[in-house]
User: Fold these one by one.
Assistant:
Number 1:
Amino acid sequence: MTAVPVRAAPAVPDLRDLTLPELGEWVTGLGEAPYRARQVFRWLWRRPVTGFHEMTDLPVELRRVLEARAQSSTLETVEVRASRDGTRKLLLRLSDGGQIEAVLIPEGRRLTACISSQVGCGMACQFCLTATMGLRRNLRPGEIAGQLPALRSALGPDERITHIVLMGMGEPLANFPAVETALKILIAPEGLAFPARRITVSTVGLVPGIRRLARAALGVNLAVSLTATTDELRDRLVPINRRYPLGELLRACREFPLPPRRRMTFEYVLMAAVNDHIEDAHRLAGLLRGIRCKVNLIPLNEAPEIPFRRPARQRIEAFQQVLERAGYVAPIRESRGEDIAAACGMLAVAEGQLDSAASNPYSDQCGVEQLGSSLGS
Ligand code: SAH
């Protein structure tokens, strides 16, 4: 009788899923000197090569060992779509055939890379298109960090990515271990050497994840997608609120360590006659009192699958005024890349991709569907 493997481990480790210290352990486990890890790490992240055989400052014998015992997966750019406003969306193919999206957003002198943390999303926010995909699987660390080099190869000669936001597909804090490792790779001087203060992790409000991120002390910024000011409404729009209600969420935000002069961000997606009342704005100002923050007002991006509408401009501005009078910085985020479906909440790739959770150690499902009946339906 042949046993069916329940969870097949990857045949060989993907070295792009390791931080430098982890790679160090693995390399010394082969009987190699620790400095070899730094060499390999630099090749993996700073110099694009197609395989270990091209890592020319390594001894030939070590290159052979790496070829046999490790892999280094890359993301394949399937398509680049350019918006009229300069936004570019990349469709990236994962090694198992799954696909994700990553976006480049120019704003004045800034060029922001918006990257994904999961294939799909399990949070079921009622106004978000990615939610309609459900959660397919978690991304692995190398697949998260690897979006930066993929986006870089789509840049023009004078362009440089200045900011990274984990605001693409998925809920980053529902894939915490992989996101943490990816952040370490992005920040590491021998890795992608990206300044932590220019990286923002955006969450729907997973309180334990916010606390873990605080403890990890990576120096990255936090954004919280709030979008409602009462538990009654938030329970409906953002189902995870039933588990982590506003009071608890805001307490975790208040306790999140902020370096001097730094602010956290609250995202508020405005929907006509749902959460765009003047009373909502006053309540929001009250809820956030004492938190060093700014509020990004995001007029809803409409889609046929989404049962809400964008408020009239006048309502949006009236909402903004209340916040500004209460002393908040509250920019209205103009929609970017809408013509290529790259705008907030619009990332959803076509059906029919593989779910290869079996070989992915980061595949534990943590979506709302798995929260059980306490959430109702
Ligand atoms: N899961 C994380 C990361 C995704 S960020 C989070 O929720 O923060 C995606 C951002 O787009 C979130 O702020 C979300 O509230 C917003 N969003 C989702 N659907 C949207 C829509 N239809 N129009 C405008 N913004 C939307």
Number 2:
Amino acid sequence: MGAVIKPPKAVMTGPVDTHLPETGHGFDYDLIVIGGGSGGLACSKAAAELGAKVAILDFVKPSPQGTRWGLGGTCVNVGCIPKKLMHTAGIVGERLAESYHFGWNVVEEDAMNELSAKKEKFSWERLVENVQNYIHGLNFKYKVDLRSNKVEYLNALGEFLDAHTIQATDIKGNKKKMTARRFVLATGGRPVFPQEVENAEQLAISSDDLFSLDREPGKTLCVGASYVSLECAGFLTAIGNDVTVMIRSIPLRGFDEQSATMIVSHMSDHGTKILQPWAPSKLTKVGEKIQVDYYNVNTKETASDTFDTVFFAVGRYPDVKGLGLENLELKLSPSGKIQVDEFERTSVPHIYAIGDIVAGGIELTPVAIQCGKLLATRLYNSSTKKMDYINVPTTVFTPLEYGAVGLSEEAAVSKYGKDNLNIYSKSFNILEYQLPHREDQGFVKLICVKSENEKVVGFHYLGPNAGEVTQGVAIAVKLSATKQDFDDTVGIHPVCAEVFTTLRLGQTEDSGC
Ligand code: FAD
Ligand code: NDP
């Protein structure tokens, strides 16, 4: 095939494009998915399971530092999975240091709290090797999964030649034309290196490089104040590096501000240096080190310091490079993301987009997966169900983990008005921290709307296992649970999350167990 077929301009009314037949359409495939990350893999497998003839293309453009990886996208290779494993390395180190108080004669607790002692006891190379071996196993498993789901996989870059034809180019430059009745774009995002910071792209690394770095990062500057920067700064500190986080404005923009402030002060108490409100202006190579010139964004005062590693985590740009979108009439948002309607349809009726590439979406793996599966069932199983972006839970894996679902206090006040809210918040002791005499406390907050029977519209939890706790509570919030429902729920003792069953207005401290 490969003929230029101009898509109709008609606006669709249903969840599925119907301008072409589902069978006998004459294209090579029913569906081609471009991008083999969280969203693309989920969508392609679900569509194939429902009987569609599907191909998926995945190709990783090397990072500016030359890092490449295998099938599975950001989450598996350079995101959630290596990040959570390295976060765990930090937690394991903490536990090791505390084990003395639980009777173990394994390490001298005080010595383990010193950076130099941690360095002696910790092997970055072994951690990276084990993490990478695990990831390689997942890369292989994803290939097998695709094969057993009858999805044809090509390790090739997809580029649109016209609205129904793509060119797949593999790493050796071999090219193949492929046509399909429908396409799903799931090409995700890549880390930004700010253009205004001289030599940032040449001398710094990003999350694309960190988890496979062949040397210990050492003295590290983490630029940025959201998930990636804080999570990576947290575990790098915990495993014994001298780490500074450079925050230009506020930490964790969009999160509950009180909770975000507590996260950063916990990091600061545990050895991460915080520079706020500062931003870098220039990087210069000085021998093996990198000199960073930076400035105070309020006073314009300048300063400089040298680091072994400079790590930029200042957001991600949509990865549309090389997709050939200029050959389509496809609408992009001002930030370059793909505009879709509530059914993930782009402005070209038979081309859909899911995951991080979508304008107005949420950059999280389970969101990309859910969108991909729902799209496949709408396309190939007559479903009309669409993605619900309300009450998507999330967890920031900083050393003190932070789980949240629903609104921050600031967003709730602006939506419902301060007088219409009851805000229950409390610090609590963590039982496991008591024998090692750790002073860190957990913190919880429930935001309830008075005029709606105290419906819970915001949940915030700082403490161990925040992801596990928040995942459970998210179901209750999704089901419109009220404060009374939380009160009526019997706690599990002795766990941190039981605090949610005993919250009272005005009671801000709990002695816990
Ligand atoms: P991706 O997973 O990015 O996949 C896109 C794929 O398409 C990539 O393999 C890309 O190389 C490929 N591609 C691009 N262009 C082309 C082309 N033209 N042809 C062929 N292939 C192409 N989310 C969470 O929920 N929990 C976490 O703990 C978490 N931690 C994270 C930690 C870090 C450091 C980062 C960076 C992200 C993290 N995320 C986390 C976010 C999560 O990884 C993303 O939301 C998710 O991977 C998005 O999936 P996707 O399918 O949209 O894109
Ligand atoms: P975000 O877009 O979330 O945040 C960018 C951060 O960088 C902000 O703090 C921003 O500050 C700062 N920043 C932007 N530009 C500059 C600059 N030029 N100089 C200094 N600072 C700058 O990006 P992330 O890379 O942290 O994360 C991307 C997405 O990946 C997240 O939004 C999240 O959805 C997902 N993710 C999820 C995780 C999880 O679920 N645990 C973990 C990691 C990532 P300002 O506020 O001032 O703009």
Number 3:
Amino acid sequence: MKLTTSKRLFRNAQKYIPGGVNSPVRALNAVGGQPIFIDKAKGPYLYDADGNRFIDYCLSWGPMILGHAYKPVLDAVRKTLGKGTSFGIPTEIETQLAKTIATAVPSIDKVRLVSSGTEAVMTAVRLARGTTDRDIIVKFIGCYHGHVDHMLVSAGSGLATFGSPSSPGVPDDFAKNTLLLPYNDLDAAKELFKKQGKNIAAVIIEPIAGNMGTIPPAEGFLEGLRTLCSKNKSMLIFDEVITGFRFTFSGVQKMLKVQPDLTCMGKIIGGGFPVGAVGGPAAVMDNLSPDGTIYQAGTLSGNPVCVSAGLATLQALKAEKPYKKLGDSGRKLADGIDEILTAKSIPHTINRMGGMFTLFFNDEPVTDYDGAAACDTKMYAKYFQHMTANGIYVPPSQFEANFLSTTHTDRHIEQTLKAVRSFEPK
Ligand code: PMP
């Protein structure tokens, strides 16, 4: 496969953009690759600057659940564009998007729109701290909640540790208010609450983890966290930036039957544009300014072009009800990969939920960060390179999820499995 143009574009980009990319994983450092530069995309396909075509399972890290350049979304955006692009003054469609989210998600009465998942988390955390008048946030090792300071914290050893910054530039003083727990370990959470319960403002969690690869919650884990939070008057925040509207026309909270106090959303609700959201009960959400005292704002929050893309996406998902099809496609692909790699005796585990899955190169069950970290990342790099060379774009890191869109058909899945069949790692 020729990547001549992408190579040239990357060299140029490196002169003017740190690392040549505007978000680090795009540099493909984890898989030793040469970034492809995209020219355009349609349905399940990416087309790069050299004219190569790829079946895309990264889908812009999750938003493009209806496939790329989905016509009703493009039409909605064009219609809005014709009226102007930003006013900094309310528009009716902001209420329509907020109402659509609030109606679909049982724990949400009101929604504040922002411009990214990171901002949604920032807002939820400030709202939880301001509402409870407590400082400590509990997060789970391996969950990612955006690049905001108090969430960029990694663990030391031990069950519950005080966090230490996982990036230079995050002050220790910030990190010390973030406590870490292992995912799926309810006993560790109970221990921590025994000691710190009355100081904990909120527990934040990806209800299905996606950022250490796909890891579903163990039975009773989220329910246990709900009980701990309720007993201690701490808030439970579900970060549904990945899971929101992915498995059902709601948050995954509806499927898992656990109600958080606050929910963060992003990705799908923006239909490929920068939109994030935080939602919850009216009594809590009204603590935000202007009615409340907890400050939050944004020049481009609720931007009409972005909101119209999100609204068109949610309207299509509501009308088309594609969730069974997405789950069926996910199962066919994941089962197919599993069968091929088993026949080749390549150690692996696949965790899947609907149209989202991760192929871990580790034959033990992967239920937390330690399990994910034990994977053979060199094998994953070989897999990524083999798949890319065969026109299949999978996530460029072992610790990410594959996503299916409504435009991935049996034909695309068969083409993908064909590429997996010829994978012969040395
Ligand atoms: N939370 C989760 C669960 C995410 O997956 C992400 C992004 N991958 C974020 C928050 C941050 O969102 P954004 O990149 O839009 O700031």
